[in-house]
Specification:
462 residues, alpha/beta, Rossmann fold, Helicase, Ruva Protein, domain 3, five-stranded parallel sheet, 19 helices
Length: 462
């Protein structure tokens, strides 16, 4: 089904196309002048515009140019009389019009064929955009590394839920690989050939998140110079992954709930509802039951999202997978660094297997990547994160830092504000180091929201 705008000064043509195209399942709006067509294009997003060329005041060519300016993704089909033929050919050659059709007794059938051609091109364009946007992180179930009972159970759960159309809520600690699991669900589902679009809800302020998800129309806000499709529309027939859903504001939660219930989106500043067909997978590292009880997350949205809950176990609960993961990351980073590292030092591996890994798989990956970068031999030796933490604490002490044992106040007193500030700065820098400067990951490591992280960064001028 497409959202189509028909523009023709002959009312009989508009009525004929309106009836014929609605029978095909399309959503159709008709107007009888170029002026109204331009206003419609400014206020809504259309998949397709069908316009006559010769009309009073504003011609179809002007409508075409306006559509190309404010909504470049929209296809435009020109309807032409015999004497308009040359103008139509020139419009197509100029690259603005998708097709042109002469007004003949077979007009409706010709338009149906042209619509199918245009929608096929539009679908391919959207898929290409989504695939390019996510190409760097595309994964399959094979990329979920692990043979422990917990991981085998997780993989079986993914295979089982993938065949359904139900909404999935993935929960687990930061760094456990929730997005990998979401991709696994998508790849194993009937939607595998369609786009997988992911977005971190904590990485955008509310207004920007709304325009990213739902799109916007020209003039919706300062800088909105043309219509833009949202990620829900880009992912049509595919999957939308909403990471860190608990960071979404209550206002956005209401809007998301409406989308899940109505299966339509309304672009920011627009008035038209756009039907969507997507599967939604959400993820969180927080206890949503507690968030609901605290009033920070809507109960109705929680039940709508957690139709199928999937738990991703922390790394400390599947230590037998650590050697596999270490070798997996070694094979990933050693060739990229141009190094011939063929094995892992047994003592280092034992130490890695015995560590608690509060940052889970992401922290292990960063540790292996760092070790590969620093290694000069064929055998990888990795330094545990806890040793780096001790070194930083020693450095702080050497620089005159005050260490308060068990939270006790020293006899001479302590500048608590400065002491807490020093700790926060140290933790911020440490998290940034472990996340290679990726601030959303650093916020995850500190188990705070991205907004809180940015506030602290600004507070301490980091």
């Amino acid at each position: 089904m497409a959202n189509i705008l028909v523009c023709d000064d002959e009312r009989s043509i508009c009525e004929m196309l309106d009836i014929a195209l609605r029978r095909e399942g399309h959503k159709v709006e008709t107007v009888n002048s170029g002026e109204v067509a331009k206003r419609k294009l400014d206020g809504a997003i259309y998949d397709l515009v069908i316009t006559d060329i010769k009309m009073p005041n504003i011609s179809g060519i002007e409508v075409l140019r306006h559509a190309h300016q404010v909504s470049p993704d929209s296809a435009v089909i020109l309807i032409t009389a015999v004497d308009d033929y040359e103008a139509a050919v020139q419009a197509v050659k100029a690259g603005g019009a998708t097709d042109y059709i002469r007004k003949t007794p077979g007009l409706v059938d010709e338009i149906k064929l042209a619509i199918n051609r245009s929608l096929e091109k539009l679908s391919l364009s959207r898929q290409n955009f989504a695939f390019k946007r996510d190409a760097a992180g595309r994964n399959s179930l094979e990329n979920i590394v692990g043979v422990s009972p917990a991981m085998e159970k997780l993989k079986q759960t993914v295979r089982t839920v993938a065949s359904t159309q139900s909404t999935v809520l993935i929960y687990g600690e930061s760094g456990t690989g929730k997005e990998l699991v979401a991709r696994g669900v998508h790849v194993c589902s009937p939607r595998a050939a369609e786009p997988f679009v992911s977005i971190n809800c904590g990485a955008f302020p509310e207004t920007l998140l709304e325009s990213e998800l739902f799109g916007y129309v020209k003039g919706a806000f300062t800088g909105a110079n043309q219509n833009k499709r949202g990620l829900f529309e880009v992912a049509d027939k595919g999957t939308v992954f909403l990471d860190e859903i608990s960071e979404m504001t209550l206002t956005m939660q209401v809007k998301l709930l409406r989308v899940l219930q109505e299966r339509t989106v309304r672009p920011v500043g627009g008035t038209a509802e756009i039907p969507i067909d997507v599967r939604v997978i959400a993820a969180t590292n927080r206890d949503l039951d507690h968030q609901v009880a605290e009033g920070n997350f809507r109960e109705d949205l929680y039940y709508r999202l957690s139709v199928i809950p999937v738990h991703v176990p922390p790394l400390r609960e599947r230590r037998e997978d650590i050697p596999l993961l270490v070798n997996h990351f070694l094979k990933k980073y050693a060739p990229a660094a141009g190094k011939q590292i063929t094995r892992v030092n047994p003592i280092s591996l034992d130490a890695l297997c015995g560590y608690e890994w509060p940052g889970n798989v992401r922290q292990l990956e960063n540790t292996v990547e760092r070790a590969v970068a620093l290694e000069t031999h064929e055998e990888l030796r990795a330094e545990l994160p806890v040793e780096r933490a001790k070194a930083r604490a020693a450095a702080a002490g050497a620089n005159g830092g005050v260490v308060v044992p068990n939270g006790a106040v020293l006899p001479d007193g302590v500048d608590m504000e400065k002491y807490v500030a020093d700790i926060e700065v140290s933790l911020l820098k440490s998290a940034l180091s472990q996340s290679n400067g990726v601030q959303t990951r650093a916020a995850d490591l500190l188990k705070i929201s991205y907004r809180s992280f940015r506030h602290l960064m600004k507070k301490y001028e980091l």
